[in-house]
């Protein structure tokens, strides 16, 4: 497996060596305070955060998830569907705001991407298989001298253990499976609604708000959770995060993973019929407005071309230049 080749996405080819590594693969890499490039990676930070990253970091600062997201992250879209992601906030020069002269200011609770630095990792699923697994790559960035260290041989498994990645990978795995499932199979109902994306954001990143949601009367009108189960989920951030994964599978992919109140959707619709219909009309109006704007823009471009004497229908050969 260690010599298998794989096609690497174009935007990653500059630093990832296209060779799959297994846990037993040997690498020669070491990062330490005396290395000449120490802290350089933190000065060019572009860190995408996972659900478990946020749990650890918000606990580190002793704040709730909403405050953490506002203070320490920036949102971005992970794909063409608009699936929400969050990145670590940096200063105006792309320097990580947690970096100090001594190194990382949150080292014990640093994100998994920082822990993996030196390696690339992604979740992979073979065609025709329902099982996914992690694959690893050498991530040789020009600024990094860790690959030039002597007597630094280790294995991928040993490196992961030294960096405390085993627990991160355990808790990130199902979240990565959700992302992989979306990419490979799509959503059960086509392009996701704005509400679905808000739920994804809340259940992935803003767990304290998610906790308030699942303990609200609106949630209990639709979903059936035993009192002791709800107590277990809401009293522990990791349990809450794991339930968030289950909830997202239920909402985004139509998996019946959470027991529901009989005829809950029908009752909920009747209660909110006017609001739902109003939202539908607003969405239709916004779509029609957008289409009208596109038509006007197309007409404007055509008129400008006509004013310049560029009539595409009457141009022949070299007589008309675009």
Shape: globular
Number of helical stretches of at least 4 residues:
12
Query: Main beta sheet, described?
Result: 3 strands, antiparallel
**Averaged pLDDT:** 82
* Count of the separate structural domains: 3
**Low-confidence spans: pLDDT under 50, at least 5 residues?**
1-14
- The H-and-E topology, N to C, reads as EEHHEEEEHEEEHHHHHHHHH
Radius of gyration: 25 Å
Total DSSP E strands: 9
Terminal CA distance: 53 Å
Fraction of residues in helix: 40-55%
Give me the side-by-side strand order of the main sheet: 1-8-7
Bin the strand percentage.
5-15%
Structural class: alpha+beta
Task: Write up what this structure looks like.
The structure is a single chain. With 322 residues, the protein is α+β, with helices and mostly antiparallel strands. It has three domains: 10-173, no CATH class; 187-256, no CATH class; 272-311. It has twelve helices and nine strands. A three-stranded antiparallel beta sheet has the order 1-8-7. A two-stranded antiparallel sheet has the order 2-9. Strand 7 and strand 8 form a beta hairpin. Helix 5 (165-185) runs parallel beside helix 10 and helix 6 (194-204) runs antiparallel to helix 10 (237-253). The longest helix has 35 residues, at 273-307. It is globular and about 70 Å long. The N and C termini lie far apart (53 Å). Residues 1-14 have low confidence and may be disordered.
